[in-house]
Amino acid sequence: INWVEGDAVVCNNTLSTNTVSATEAGTQSAQFSFEAVAYPYSVFYPAEYYTTSGSLRFHESQPIVKNEVNRSLMVMAGYSSTTEVTLNNLCGIVTIPITNKYEGEYITIDKIEVRASEGDPITGKYHINYRTNALTSVAGKSAIVLNPEGEFTIAPEETASVNFVVPKGSIRNGLYVNIYSSVGLLENHRIFPTGLTVRGGETATADL
């Protein structure tokens, strides 16, 4: 991802003393300063997803934007014995296409409920192995609520995409999805019924 002005990171449990500058914004490289941090360096982004116990906490409610990926949800981590650290994705993206089949009527998405069919964790608290970028669920939850950030209106016969993030790992037998709109319960689906392997930085699109 490209940096945005104001971004911050955590290194070895310490929040950076500076944030991304205007000149660094839009690029894939940024410099951060820290107080009393020694190598090796374990770096985490975004800082607001980091817990004081050193774990990662995915939120049970995610903001979504029509046809876009909310970059603020893209959790990344890196490890290095030098001051140059490459960050790697700890989550993947799931895309759900929604088609407005109401002739002559616009619909507005109110919320979307997502639940793992076998109770597998898809959000909650995770331990990070910075050397391998592996995640281990320590207080996982099996359900997410997606809430539009701004208006999410779909024109008649238009297909819009919903994009949300889930941690790397396997989801047995897929996900149940309930889509609520201005006309009530618009659709409910079971997606990826044979299971889904989520890989960092990759997108899986549901076939509806």
Strand content: over 45%
Biggest sheet layout = 6 strands, mixed
Bulk shape: globular
Pattern of helices and strands: EEEEEEEEEEEEEEEEEEE
User: In angstroms, what separates the terminal alpha carbons?
Assistant: 28 Å
> So how many helices?
0
Give the quaternary arrangement of the chains: single chain
Low-confidence stretches: none
Q: Structural class of the helix and strand makeup?
A: mainly beta
Backbone CA Rg: 19 Å
- Overall pLDDT level: 93
Number of strands: 19
Structure description:
With 208 residues, the protein is mostly beta strands. It is built from no helices and 19 strands. The protein has strands at residues 10-11, 14-15, 41-45, 56-58, 61-64, 76-80, 88-89, 91-99, 107-116, 123-129, 134-141, 143-148, 153-154, 159-167, 169-171, 175-181, 184-191, 196-198, 203-205. The strands form five sheets. Strands 5, 9, 12, 13, 16 and 17 form a six-stranded mixed β-sheet that branches. The two termini are 28 Å apart. The mean pLDDT is 93.
Topology:
Elements: E1 10-11, E2 14-15, E3 41-45, E4 56-58, E5 61-64, E6 76-80, E7 88-89, E8 91-99, E9 107-116, E10 123-129, E11 134-141, E12 143-148, E13 153-154, E14 159-167, E15 169-171, E16 175-181, E17 184-191, E18 196-198, E19 203-205
